[in-house]
Amino acid sequence: MKKLSKLLALVLALMLMMSCASAVELDPDAEPKYDPFGKYDPPITVTSVHTASDNYFWFYEEGDDISNNVYTRRWAEQLGINYEFLWTAPMSQGYEKLNAQIASPELPDFFQVSTTQFEQLVQAGQLEDLTQVIQDYATPVTKKFMTGEYAGLLDAVTRDGKIYGIPSGTSYLDTAYMMWIRADWLENVGLDAPTTMAELEEVMDAFVNKDPDQNGENDTYAIATSSYDIPYNIAMFNMFGAYPYVWTKDGEDKLQQGMFGPDYRDNLGLAIETLAKWYDKGYLHPDVGTYDDTMKEDDIYADKCGIMFGDAWPSYWPLNNHVLINPDAKWRPFPLVSATDEPAKITATLCNVDVVVVARKGVENPEALVKMTNLYHELNTYPATEFEVFNTDPIDNNNVFLMYPLYVYNPAFNYEGYLVISDAMENGLKGEMSPGYKLYYDQAMAYRDEGDPNGFPPYAAYSPEGAFSVQEYYVENKLIQVNEYTAPYSETRAAADPVIDKAFVTMMLDIVTGDGDMTKFDEFTALYDTVYADALAEAAEWFQAQGCYSLQDAFDAE
């Protein structure tokens, strides 16, 4: 535990050093000026919208629904706040529906928006300034995720010294990319986990040709992949030294994209050529060009494939379902291997805002949003004494927290949990453990010691051989490609990105599942240079205004 604690201290120090100082000073240790959980009497009613997917949570009590559940009742009982919805929609439809709402004069009182929508609302003057109510009502826990190592999240919602939202985001400790491989198949074909590209290709060939499921039939392939994964799977590109969605510094103190910039094009070309060869060898499904995610998942459940490239979370979906079907399937995470002379690095943004919780301009009781956020953290983050009621059910892994429309992610939860849980699994549980971590610890131990498939997700995430041990490996060895460009998403990029994205997807699928003609790649890069010229100039101007300060150089220097 001492080693892990030292690592965490180093990580937090790095993030503190590299986060830009916010124009707003929040003291994370200061107690709020007013009661952060003060109950309204008489009660107040606020409006919102709900856009979370209902595929990942469900209701237990008869009569419960999105407007009547453990969250709505607790908010009314403890805070005197009733919230009702102007509308609800699945996440797949909610973004566009909210776009239409933004264009109308009728906004909900409190709602959750994307970073692009946040920019639109700020520019239109439609958001309430929350600076003072955050100062006066936010608990130390609420402020923790807007200060110190997470100050970058606050910067993203601050304009001209005013805070216009409560950010919900992740740190780079939550975004590791890796290989998930069936360890039982490795054992069946007599191979160890791969540590080089040559070894990975040996494993893939064995998963196709050496009957890894031992059913006596030639009915398996290697990589679980959909048509979406071909152009968008970050982990696969990272193995080749190409880095989607990040910008890096070039030799002239300008910025370039980690996929399409001049320093990365050869690596991207190598990735495309290699994927085409893998397709020809049967390592990917022959119909991958038309495969959707449901088809991919069905093949996983049917024991048809044994490798999945992804982030830290496949154990919670879809691999958890496979383990319920086949408890003998032993999916394990491993660091990415490299196809180049350099070690494989992973793409990461130090602090990344996913969504922002906001209040409409002129709303009554704007402090109610801060109180609601305080209570959310009280139930889900610290002390989280009712974690299994408000966050994750210990039996069926129901994501109860998604019932709440204004959730704010705790970016420290998972890596800190790994440090605690993995240490207890290796050295024995000593003393008390927070309820959330104890829940995952008990589940992981039940999987390890009793084979309980319900404990597979936390075991595969938080155990000493889990996904966050892979993240620890990347951190210790500085195998992280840091995003240098942290400016708000601009109209220039918004205009260029759809053109490039469409051309990239078409080019990738044509080459990988088609004729393998790499002249299409050259045509694509020429198009990129033309379409993205203004966005590149804009990025260079922004970087110069920052004094060409390199987050990557600072990270590597520690």
Written account of the structure:
The protein has 558 residues and is of the alpha/beta class. 45% of the residues lie in helices and 12% in strands. It has 24 helices and 15 strands. The protein has helices at residues 2-18, 70-79, 91-102, 115-123, 131-137, 140-144, 151-156, 183-189, 197-209, 229-232, 234-238, 265-280, 293-301, 319-325, 367-380, 387-390, 413-427, 435-450, 456-462, 467-476, 491-515, 519-531, 533-545, 551-557; strands spanning 44-50, 81-88, 110-114, 158-159, 162-163, 166-171, 178-182, 221-223, 247-249, 255-257, 305-310, 331-334, 346-348, 351-359, 480-482. The strands form 6 sheets. The chain has a 4-stranded mixed sheet with strand order 8-11-7-12. A hairpin with a 2-residue loop joins strand 4 (158-159) and strand 5. Helix 18 crosses helix 19. The longest helix is centred in the C-terminal third of the chain and has 25 residues, at 491-515. It is globular and about 70 Å long.
